[in-house]
Amino acid sequence: MPTQRLTLLGATGSIGDSTLDLVARHPDRFTVHALTAHRNLDKLFTRCVAFRPDVAVVGEAQDAMQLQARLRVAGVRTEVMHGPQALCEVAQSAGCDTVVAAIVGAAGLLSSLAAARAGKKILLANKEALVMSGALFMRTVAAHGATLLPLDSEHNAIFQCLAGAPAGGAGVERIVLTASGGPFLHRPLEALDRVTPDEACAHPTWRMGRKISVDSATMMNKGLETIEARWLFAMPPERIEVVIHPQSVIHSMVAYADQSVLAQLGRPDMRTPIAHAMAWPERIDSGVAPLDFLQLAHLSFAAPELKRFPCLRLALEVLREGCAASVTLNAANEAAVDAFLNGRLRYTDIAHVVEDCLQRAPSSAHESLDDILATDTQTRVLAGQAIQRAALRSASATVPLSLSTTLDEGIGARL
Ligand code: NAD
Ligand code: MG
Hints:
- By secondary structure, the chain is α/β, with parallel strands linked by helices.
- About 45% of the residues lie in helices and about 15% in strands.
- The chain has helices spanning about 15-25, 40-50, 60-75, 85-90, 110-115, 125-145, 155-160, 195-200, 210-220, 220-230, 270-280, 310-320, 325-340, 350-360, 370-395, and strands spanning about 5-10, 30-35, 55-60, 80, 100, 120-125, 145-150, 170-180, 240-245, 250-255, 260-265.
- Strand 3, helix 3 (about 60-75) and strand 4 (about 80) form a beta-alpha-beta unit.
- The two termini are about 40 Å apart.
- Mean pLDDT is about 95; it is low at about 400-415.
């Protein structure tokens, strides 16, 4: 069995942690070509010492110099590069055959696309890349013979339940994405404008990075995932359903024409879908404890309340209208979540900012990468203005903004 050589984009994040845990469990199968991080030098240093990649990439030149010096002293021969172009270089390098795309947000788009253009096996966690560039991304994958495997637990579950059935094809009636409902599923609606970043990030079932945790609280995450599913599985919007399932045991389902419904079950631990995609079509030990049915009290299901989750409503509208506004949806959300996490915006204003941008931005289908990048940039300007208006409104209101948190590495960086 030949070893797979990995480039791990986003090696210091939550998906990065789970992926490297699996690499460490299976050194005979996986070696590391490149590890990338934005600013978390200490963690990247430790990762380089442990996994000895050929290349490491960080955001800034100064950080690259510092990391290079530390690695030299430690006797590690990793070459350190920096900047967005270096991310693309390690994603398309002949030194790797598999790229784990786990950068958060639009910052991961160009390197994910570079991996597709280079015909790599891509394990995609960076859903924002697919939301922004769905048609282009899928065309690029097909044109260059790349293999695209979803890491997102829902999409990985659907991939497993499709079991080779033609995506979006005859026999598949609908796909059902499950959602935990996040930490505010039962919070009184009138208390939502006071929630803090730390409360929003305290997900009841999953441990994840802060941006996706807030997206899970607002259910924008599920909205982005419906768009992700539309592209990954060539599924028309009316055949994609969202169901709240607070236990996060069923990770998603596929219903067939004969009314067979296949579900994938497991503990809420990303090592299961990542192990599946890394070893596919084989199966390997993921280190996850077995699912004990006798311990599961019950599995419940409910329809999502769109009044409680306006971000989900907005994303579903974008999906139904053909996804032309998905770049705006994503960029506005990234900017709003960043502002919320940094204490500049109330939780309930995240949806207001996104809606405001969707109303103001011209929405037309994006034919090229340049169109996508231009809309992303324009939307962030609009979102900045909308955030300022919202902050002015809340300054004159009685409820103060929370100032309790700082971001680990920053999200929503400009491309
Ligand atoms: P995280 O915040 O824990 O990690 C993000 C990673 O991206 C870090 O390594 C960081 O250095 C890097 N990064 C951030 N900004 C960057 C920039 N401007 N340039 C280059 N690198 C940058 O996030 P995460 O939870 O690991 O999520 C990563 C992606 O995977 C997201 O798109 C998320 O939606 C998706 N995802 C995560 C989970 C999960 O369980 N964490 C599940 C499904 C999908
Ligand atoms: Mg998911």
